[in-house]
Amino acid sequence: MQSFTEENYLKIIYHLAEKTNNVQTNAIAEQMQTKPASVTDMIKKLAEKGFVDYIKYQGVTLTDKGKNAAVDIVRKHRLWEVFLVDKLNFKWDEVHDVAEELEHIKSTALIERLDEFLGFPKSDPHGDPIPDKNGRFAKTQFTKLIDLKISDQGTITGVSQHSSAFLKHLEKLGLTLGKQIEINDVTDFDGSVEILVAGKQINISREVAKHILISSNGKN
Amino acid sequence: MQSFTEENYLKIIYHLAEKTNNVQTNAIAEQMQTKPASVTDMIKKLAEKGFVDYIKYQGVTLTDKGKNAAVDIVRKHRLWEVFLVDKLNFKWDEVHDVAEELEHIKSTALIERLDEFLGFPKSDPHGDPIPDKNGRFAKTQFTKLIDLKISDQGTITGVSQHSSAFLKHLEKLGLTLGKQIEINDVTDFDGSVEILVAGKQINISREVAKHILISSNGKN
DNA sequence: TTAAATTTTTAGGTAAATCTAAAAATTATT
DNA sequence: AATAATTTTTAGATTTACCTAAAAATTTAA
Ligand SMILES: [Mn+2]
Ligand SMILES: [Mn+2]
Ligand SMILES: [Mn+2]
Ligand SMILES: [Mn+2]
């Protein structure tokens, strides 16, 4: 059984490992909003407990045990987010912080019954996949909207940024999960993208386009 | 904002204060499963923060601020218990420990929406009243089953013991909330009570009868 | 391939919540 | 009222998760 803090470290290491194999001390510190020295302390502890493999100065990688623990927390986080949106009418930009707390509740029975109550959802309100109780989930292959070419079409199926500000902005633009879009033009001046969504033509910045994930379903 | 630990102290002091006005250090220590010396430390802290009035060697009483904080935690605890039983099909003997964790989640929006989702329940699975968002609730007046006389009738509306062992035992005997009972006899030998419930005559020990709460609705 | 910049670790300390052992105050009993 | 028993507090440590400052290792750049 891990502490609240250890769980947060494991989850953050897990997410960072999606990008780079060896996760650096500084990267963890930044995510945990703490100092590198504190991270080193915790890393040693996690290594001792068998959650990570650690070589001094070389960063960490999760062991199987560590990966399982991390995926379990991710599963809880995302299931609670579904609960908040589907059952309690939270908006997709309001759920993250509460889920950060709820994910640490320790009860296998609770999370399995919650999963059932929600109808075994496959993805959370931000389009992220929800691991099943064995930790398995489909690693969906998304394209970033920014990488599409003119006249490409697709469906919005995820976002790679979960800040409330970003999500509220998307909401206002009508760019929510499931929406069909088509690329009309890319502005020379600032690289902003003209897209067609729900019959309307709108312009979104490069920064926004970078964080919208599309499942392509048309002429490539 | 109080810590997890402070919240537990406040809740326990609140419950102990339902019996005696001045709550003793040792009583708190027993409930918190900790040592009296630790309790003294925490009491000082709570007094400094204005949650309790404290006179050395005289025990503590909650201030209004402390009472409000405690009632808020009780409200959360009981609402989560309702959620677990009504929505996730937990049994009434399975909910307490999980609710002990859930009660510390800090989000006013969450608890208000949960309350609404549950239909603003007035009592929890053990018959305990749920404070509204202003901390108000009816202090229901119960009689202990043990205090009833032969031929008295009533409805089971609560229990004053929440251990899983006790609740499972009641379940097996068919003594659940809402059940009508009538006192048939009190055994001279061991003080055990013969009661009529759902057409059947059963015998319950004094110990069990002490912890069943009845709202009388018949010949007194 | 040195020197500079960056990253990471060590050393030494703090604050919160706990503990044990012993001292002090209160309450109960003779 | 004196003594015994109980309750409560103090003193001094421990553990966890932090911190700052400085040293050490690694990486990058000249
Ligand atoms: Mn989230
Ligand atoms: Mn999410
Ligand atoms: Mn309970
Ligand atoms: Mn209850």
Describe this protein's structure.
Two copies of one chain form a homodimer. The first copy, chain A, is of the alpha+beta class. Among the domains of chain A are: 4-62, Arc Repressor Mutant, subunit A (Orthogonal Bundle); 143-216, Ferrous iron transport protein A (FeoA) (SH3 type barrels, Roll), CATH 2.30.30. In chain A, 41% of the residues lie in helices and 17% in strands. Chain A has eight helices and eight strands. The first copy, chain A, has helices spanning 4-17, 25-32, 36-48, 64-87, 96-102, 108-117, 164-173, 206-210; strands spanning 52-54, 60-62, 143-144, 153-159, 180-186, 193-197, 200-204, 212-216. In chain A, strands 3-8-4-5-6-7 form a six-stranded antiparallel sheet. A two-stranded antiparallel ribbon of chain A has the order 1-2. In chain A, strand 6 and strand 7 form a beta hairpin. In chain A, helix 1 crosses helix 2 (25-32) and helix 1 (4-17) packs across helix 4 (64-87). The longest helix of chain A is centred in the middle third of the chain and has 24 residues, at 64-87. The radius of gyration of chain A is 19 Å and the shape is globular. The mean pLDDT of chain A is 95. The A-B interface holds A 84, 87-90, 94, 97-98, 101-102, 105-107, 109-110, 113-114, 117 and B 84, 87-90, 94, 97-98, 101-102, 105-107, 109-110, 113-114, 117. The structure holds manganese (II) ion (MN) (4 copies). One manganese (II) ion binds at residues 78, 81, 124, 126, 128, 162 of chain A. The site of one manganese (II) ion has 6 residues of chain A, from helix 4. Chain B binds a DNA duplex (30 and 30 nucleotides) through helix 3. Chains A, B: This is Transcriptional regulator MntR. Chains A, B: InterPro entries: DtxR_MntR_Metal-Reg, Fe-transptr_FeoA-like, Fe_dep_repressor, Fe_dep_repressor_sf, FeoA_core_dom, HTH_DTXR, Iron_dep_repressor, Transcriptional_repressor_C. Chains A, B: Keywords: Activator, Cytoplasm, DNA-binding, Iron, Manganese, Repressor, Transcription, Transcription regulation.
